[in-house]
Amino acid sequence: MIERADLAMTKDWSMNTKIIHDNQFPDPETRAISQSVVPAVAYAFPDAETAAEVVSDGAKGVYYGRYGNPTLHVLERKIAGLEGGEAALGVASGMAAISIALLGFLKHGDHVVVTKDVYGGTYSFLTSLAPRFGIEVDFVDCTEIVSLLSAIKPNTRAVYIETPSNPRLTVLDIKIIGELCKTHQLPLIVDNTFMSPCLQKPLDIGADIVVHSATKYINGHGDVLAGFVVGKKDVIDFMRKKLMGDLGQNLNAWESFLILRGIKTMGLRVERHCSSAQKIAEFLESHPFVEKVYYPGLKSHPQHELAKRQMLGMGGIISFEVKGGLVEGKRLINALQLAMISFSLGDPETLVQHPASMTHAAIPKEERLKFGISDGLIRLSVGLEDANDIIKDLDQALSSLFSVSGR
Ligand code: PLP
Predict the structure, then answer these.
(1) How far apart are CA 89 and CA 229, in angstroms?
(2) Residue to probe by mutation, ligand 1, list 200, 213, 344, most atoms within 8 Å of CB
(3) In degrees rounded to 5, what are phi and psi of residue 362?
(4) Mutational pocket test of ligand 1: of 161, 163, 166, 359, the residue with most ligand atoms within 8 Å of the beta carbon
(5) Which tens digits make up the pLDDT trace of 123-153?
(6) Exposed e or buried b for every residue in 96-119, given b needs 16+ CB within 10 A?
């Protein structure tokens, strides 16, 4: 008889089916379909030899909670499968994943090339903490392949990009950058947070490592902080032992369970985020009080054609500038009644924020302006509410800005 587990391995499922069934089977003892939570820190071994064997090869089992737990391992196999990687490491936040991925390749005296508009936390890590360990960084406009090429030095050991970027939604050509990295034997690390594996699979088109803030679309409910690093098994094994384990960056069993639950609706959620964001971006672009809209699904986006080739959907994040600038931008977000002012993204609720004073406040103003993050820029994370209600909310807030009473 073919076991269901074997059958699952042979099926050529599409993403939406994989999200539900890939690498996840009913509990062999209880037949429970939803994943059991195993909170144990310590595990018993039949003899000293087995214990030593598991410690030397973590893949053979679980030995101590700081290096993983059985619930997390199910989730890691699922994420690795969805991203098309050999292995995945689940950690305590997106920033834990990013710092582990970078420290996995960089040591004292090394240099890393980074795309210029990255998440503020990534910028902060690379400019304040990494230099204390002798790691050098250059931020480069990676839409210009020549700039990327000329930034590579003899001591460059990795290239790090985020696409689409936070908050300007710059789209980078993973395939071309991947080819350049291969030529220079440099690992390419891609932050895939804005896309989720539903919309973009960087490992299939030239990346070596994918990182995620699973706090966003993967969990999707705004109630867990988590991150993933996905790549080759030997690299992930090293990161598990030497970085996640030794730095204590592990993801616990309960949060792993919450993600295993949240991820089941990721396909549906992402579809809705994308379709609503497209409508809202078009509404904003046609609004007389809006100066500029950044959304890869708009024809006016500078990398719209690349986005159509590289991404299966345009995502749920829109950035825009209101006419006037900073003061009007802040007044607009204060006038919103449905969208909430908040730091996160990818949640069921529509969230709005002002990058210059919130998520990207760690970047000095001149640098921020070079990265295209103006004082008036607003980032909108389109939620799962009815798109027309989100549009009505934006419309009333925009109208209030320039009405007599709004002044
Ligand atoms: N990467 C991107 C693109 C993000 O937007 C964020 C957070 O907003 C992170 C990484 C960091 O994730 P976390 O907050 O889970 O550490």
Answers:
(1) 5
(2) 213
(3) -70, -15
(4) 166
(5) 999 999 999 999 999 999 999 999 999 999 9
(6) bbbbbbbbbbbeeebbbbbbbbbb
Residue 400, φ and ψ in degrees, nearest 5:
-65, -25
**Atom of ligand 1 at shortest range from CA of 166:** 3
Mutate to test the pocket of ligand 1, among 100, 115, 119, 224 (most ligand atoms within 8 A of CB): 119
Count of helix runs (H) and strand runs (E) in the chain:
17, 12
**Per-residue tokens: 176:** 């071309």
Which residue, among 349, 339, 309, has the nearest Cα to 163 in the 3D structure? Answer: 309
List domains and CATH numbers for the chain.
4-264 (3.40.640.10), 266-404 (3.90.1150.10)
What gap in Å lies between CA 11 and CA 169, rounded to an integer? 35
What are φ and ψ of residue 379, in 5° steps? -110, 130
Phi–psi pair at 280, nearest 5 degrees = -70, -40
Give 30-58 pLDDT, tens digit per residue: 999 999 999 999 999 999 999 999 888 76
Q: Residue 271 and residue 118: Cα distance in Å, rounded?
A: 25
> Exposed, middle or buried, 183 (CB in 10 Å: 0-12/13-18/19+)?
exposed
Q: Other C-beta atoms within 10 Å of 12: how many? A: 6
Would you state the structure tokens that stand for residue 239, as one six-digit string?
């990161």
Residue whose pair of structure tokens reads 């737990």 in the numeric block: 69
Peptide bond between residue 167 and the one before it cis (omega within 30 degrees of 0) = yes
| Catalytically annotated residues | 66, 119, 191, 216
Q: Is the pLDDT of residue 407 over 50?
A: no
Tokens at 138, concatenated: 């250059």
């990721």: which residue's tokens?
266
Which atom of ligand 1 is nearest to 215's Cα? 15
**46 Cα: distance to centroid of ligand 1 (angstroms):** 41
The answer to whether the CB of 94 is under 6 A from ligand 1 is yes
Ligand 1 close to Cβ of residue 196 (< 6 A): no
Q: What is the pTM of this model?
A: 0.95
Distance 97 CA to ligand 1 centre (A): 9
Name the strand (E) or helix (H) holding 86. none
